[in-house]
């Protein structure tokens, strides 16, 4: 009996309106993007569990680590089983993670929060992040950058919704917005978020479809498309992709672009306070602006990559990013306008890097197993999630130990980030089209894709 | 030996297990409103907060 979750069970009609697909993809990314708003629970958690910043910080770190691991491990499974099965699996992990974490909060067991939100929820993050990406690129062969930008923008935007929603829920259930009331509202807030995410992800899984084999966008003829210099006509399997230098060059590019972004994100609030002596509340406003820059960059830069080319876009992220970091390090203290503008653009490049990478992979390796290849590449994100804060915080701590203060604490870290971006720039320059020896036979790819749509 | 490229044979109306009927269109429309509305809500709250804090 055919499952309603398989790829063959969700083939759209020939005359389907493809614009119903991005909201389905956005649904899951907006839900799992909640992870970026985890900091709103930090202080209530520290108070509830009587734990330090590091112990609570581990919840987020485990989740991001599991994101990279699970996207790499489950990428081939996601590719084989299609977007609906993967969205259901991701949603189940994510929601179960919230419920187990609720149990941990209720019983005062922090390890249950690590297990629930960190490990199980983190697996949901990895599967959910890659689940709609290759499907979107199949629906938008004419504009893959726009398509993936739309979905991955949702991951950045998830925090914009989850952050105020979580605060309001904690205040509602706890009976006020004082710290002790927020702590009292933790458990019902986690349960409510779990239920809301279950409904939204289920609706997304219901709506998602894969294109009919005879469907093409109106006015788009693949045979008449003029291939751009970096765009392949072949298809590479994930097994072969990880054996190519292009994969590892892009791994380095993503790793360094994310590391540089974290350099700003990790210390945004204390940095602007040190530079300009503004209040903590104003610094929080600056952090809010950065999250908008992160989200906007995902959509705007990824969309422009359809016209400029992915390699050129990365030249801009890494090259202009290095110059902007240098400007902040040398002249940022002179003008708050210059500081905010430069950091906003750097963060938009950070978001743009995430959103452009799936289309870059499609250009190099074809659409055949791009979801699984994307999953394998996301290990760079996990590595940067560990390395970035480590570099930035070590530099600040070393500066403090040496008696430095104010902007002087952050300047060495910025020069390190300039170096990182320059190395990333060189790695991107070295990316060339993939050799044909790695291509799958066209008949084999077509046969496997046809079988996936017909199996019952 | 057949050298033509294999193509899946799927009805023009798509998979019979997942028809695109009125229920599908209703859920799709509500989902679109929820995700776009949610994004605009979060975005406007963050912009208002950021601007207010800076100007205040």
Automatic annotation (TrEMBL), chain A:
Pfam families: MFS_1
Membrane topology note: Multi-pass membrane protein
Molecular function (Gene Ontology), one example: transmembrane transporter activity
Keyword Transmembrane helix among UniProt keywords: yes
InterPro entries: MFS, MFS_dom, MFS_trans_sf, Proton-linked_MCT
Name by which UniProt lists this protein: MFS transporter
Single GO cellular component term: plasma membrane
Alphabetic keyword roster: Membrane, Transmembrane, Transmembrane helix
Domain Major facilitator superfamily (MFS) profile: 1-436
Gene3D superfamilies: MFS general substrate transporter like domains
Keyword check for Transcription regulation: no
Subcellular location as annotated: Cell membrane
Taxon lineage: Bacteria, Bacillati, Actinomycetota, Actinomycetes, Micrococcales
Transmembrane domains' residue ranges: 20-38, 58-78, 85-105, 111-132, 144-162, 182-208, 247-265, 271-293, 314-331, 337-361, 373-392, 412-431
CDD domains for the chain: MFS_OFA_like
């Amino acid at each position: 009996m055919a499952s309603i979750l398989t790829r063959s069970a969700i083939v759209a009609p020939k005359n389907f309106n493809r614009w119903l697909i991005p909201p389905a993809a956005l649904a899951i990314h907006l839900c799992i993007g909640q992870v970026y708003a985890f900091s709103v629970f930090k202080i209530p958690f520290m108070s509830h569990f009587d734990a330090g910043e590091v112990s609570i910080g581990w919840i987020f770190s485990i989740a991001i680590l599991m994101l990279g691991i699970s996207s790499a491990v489950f990428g081939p499974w996601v590719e084989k089983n299609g977007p609906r099965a993967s969205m259901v699996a991701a949603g189940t992990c994510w929601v179960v993670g919230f419920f187990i974490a609720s149990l941990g909060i209720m019983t005062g067991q922090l390890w249950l929060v690590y297990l629930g939100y960190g490990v199980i929820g983190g697996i949901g993050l990895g599967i959910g992040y890659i689940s709609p990406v290759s499907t979107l690129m199949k629906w938008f062969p004419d504009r893959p950058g726009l398509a993936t930008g739309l979905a991955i923008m949702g991951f950045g935007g998830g925090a914009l919704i989850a952050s105020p929603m979580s605060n309001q829920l904690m205040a509602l259930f706890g009976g006020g917005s004082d710290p002790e009331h927020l702590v009292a509202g933790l458990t019902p807030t986690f349960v409510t978020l779990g239920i809301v995410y279950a409904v939204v992800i289920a609706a997304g899984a219901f709506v998602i479809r894969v294109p009919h084999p005879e469907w093409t966008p109106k006015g788009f003829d693949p045979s008449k498309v003029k291939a751009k210099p970096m765009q392949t006509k072949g298809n590479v399997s994930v097994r072969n992709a990880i054996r190519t230098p292009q994969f590892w060059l892009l791994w380095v590019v993503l790793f360094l672009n994310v590391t540089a972004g974290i350099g700003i994100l990790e210390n945004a609030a204390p940095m602007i306070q040190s530079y300009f002596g503004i209040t903590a509340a104003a610094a929080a406003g600056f952090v809010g602006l950065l999250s908008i820059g992160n989200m906007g960059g995902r959509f705007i830069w990824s969309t422009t990559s359809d016209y400029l080319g992915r390699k050129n876009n990365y030249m801009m992220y890494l090259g202009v990013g290095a110059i902007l970091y240098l400007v902040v390090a040398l002249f940022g203290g002179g003008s708050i306008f210059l500081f905010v503008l430069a950091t906003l653009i750097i963060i938009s490049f950070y978001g743009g890097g995430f959103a452009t990478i799936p289309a870059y992979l499609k250009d190099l390796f074809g659409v055949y197993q791009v979801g699984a290849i994307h999953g394998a590449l996301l290990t760079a994100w996990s590595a940067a999630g560990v390395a970035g804060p480590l570099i930035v915080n070590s530099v600040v701590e070393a500066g403090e130990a040496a008696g430095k203060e104010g902007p002087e604490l952050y300047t060495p870290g910025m020069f390190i980030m300039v170096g990182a971006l320059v190395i990333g720039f060189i790695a991107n320059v070295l990316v060339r089209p993939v050799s044909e020896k790695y291509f799958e036979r066209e008949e084999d790819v077509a046969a496997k894709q046809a079988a996936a749509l017909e199996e019952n | 030996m057949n050298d033509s490229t294999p193509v899946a044979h799927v009805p023009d109306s798509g998979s019979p297990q997942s028809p695109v009927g009125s229920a599908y269109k209703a859920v799709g429309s509500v989902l679109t409103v929820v995700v776009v509305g949610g994004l605009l809500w979060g975005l406007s709250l963050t912009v208002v907060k950021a601007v207010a804090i800076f100007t205040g």
